[in-house]
Amino acid sequence: MALLGKQSVNNPIFCAIDTPSLTRAKNLAQELRGHVYGLKLGLEFFMANGAGGYQEMAALGLPIFLDVKLHDIPNTVTGALGSLLALKPAFMTIHTSGGPAMMRAASDAAKAAGKDRPKLLGVTVLTSLDAADLAALGQAADISQQVLRLAVLAKQNSLDGVICSPAEVKTLRQTCGKDFILMVPGIRPTWAAANDQKRVMTPKEAMAEGATYLVIGRPITEADNPAEVAERIAAELI
Ligand code: C5P
Questions:
Q1: In angstroms, what is the span from residue 14 Cα to ligand 1's centroid?
Q2: How many angstroms separate the alpha carbon of residue 93 from the centre of ligand 1?
Q3: Exposed site from 7, 64, 106, 195, fewest CB < 10 Å?
Q4: Could you say which DSSP state residue 187 is in?
Q5: Dmax of the chain from CA atoms?
Q6: What does CATH list as the number for 13-236?
Q7: Model pTM score
Q8: Mean pLDDT, each 10-residue run in order, the chain (238 residues)
């Protein structure tokens, strides 16, 4: 397959680089440059490699979504954000269940970082939780209602968007408006293995429902030729 060779216009793919290995992460970044929009680095990478490892990745030139899901009291979250904002990721995450005051403090801190500040996204209900888990946690609402409640709260407290599963995209787009960022994992092309993802949607379906960006990991990172797979997915979206 011919590769497009430079970053596709409107390519919405963040590739999830879920590894503690800086060498593997850098190799993937180099292979994927020009074939995805950006990279998602999460706790697995950040705990192993810290800010130094992050900076080595950022130097490779792709926008980075730093997914460290902060969850603490407002003072501690804004303190942690102070250090993370200096790294200038394109996106970063906090837990909406930290509450309105924490979200407001975090969004104020992010906005104070200026025009090219990172966008702040909220994590709503982790997709590893089911209805029985929510009940065990004392939350009576069903999952979709709880996701909607937390996404609306995120918007009210000036977060730029949320992470959500494909099943939630349509409702959240309708409720939260066209500018609210919906970053969507759980994406699988029809020709890729689902791995442990249970409720998946294809890239094209998720974009049609209203996703802003797609997070795709293993179908790309475990392929023999990650760049070719990324291009194949991007081409399906045109
Ligand atoms: O390899 P895969 O495409 O399943 O990777 C999806 C990425 O999105 C992983 O980093 C995973 O932790 C993350 N994620 C997810 N589901 C959520 C939130 C994040 O799969 N609800």
A1: 11
A2: 13
A3: 195
A4: B
A5: 53
A6: 3.20.20.70
A7: 0.94
A8: 43 97 98 97 98 98 97 98 96 98 97 93 91 90 93 98 96 98 96 88 96 97 97 91
